[in-house]
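agent> Task received from the user: take the single chain below, predict its 3D structure, and emit structure tokens. No templates, no multimer pairing.
agent> Plan: (1) validate residues, (2) run structure prediction, (3) serialize to tokens, (4) report one or two observations.
agent> Step 1 OK, no nonstandard residues flagged.
tool_call: predict_structure(input=
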Amino acid sequence: MYQTHKTYITPDVRMSDLIVENSSLLLLLEHFEVDFAVQDKTVEQLCSDNQIDLAVFLVFGNLYNGFYPGKNEIEALEGISTIIRFLKNSHRFYKHDKYPELKYFIKQLHERHDTEDILLIEKFFNDYFEEVLEHLDYEEIVVFPYICRLIEDGNVTLKNNFSANEYRDHHTDIETKLTDLKNLLLKHISLKNDFSLRRKFLFSLFELEFDLNIHSLIEDKILLPLVGKIEITPANG
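)
tool_result: status=success, residues=237
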């Protein structure tokens, strides 16, 4: 039976019970490169076995369960390298899993419904994901190397290429366009006698939206404030 209530994750809870309650936690495990065969291990045991920062795992897991961390909880986090590892793995998921999957569904729609509406969806999606990929490349080429260098030796030579405000604004734009794409399918475009394919396409979009929203929250509300704490700022600004 589908459960709307989600457990607040603590170190002593069994991971298998959490997954049964919320299957979206499989994405969490995948982004941490953890095998889904979790046996009867608790969250703490799972993190220990996979060399994952427990505090980071708990905060991220609770985001997937709908619980937002408090300011003190965020400020106490120290595993920035764990956070970046998670984000890089999520990039691979978007690029090599969700993007091909959604492209496949659009191709199927196009083959079955050669209409102006489907061409509109195809163009909108291609433009949208081109922007997503551009943003992910920006993170991998500029943002993550800057943070890693900052952690390692305080060298901020990449700082001039990085703008926190631009970073946040791009996230907002990406999320808005994904909502627009969903609304096209839900409110304006009718595909008669093809409920199954449209449902699969929408489910995939909802999954992408859910994970991208958490991805953006982690970067904007957790990673950037932690990086801000360790940035070396010249005395005269």
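agent> Step 4: summary for the user.
Residues 233-237 have pLDDT under 50 and may be disordered.
agent> Done.
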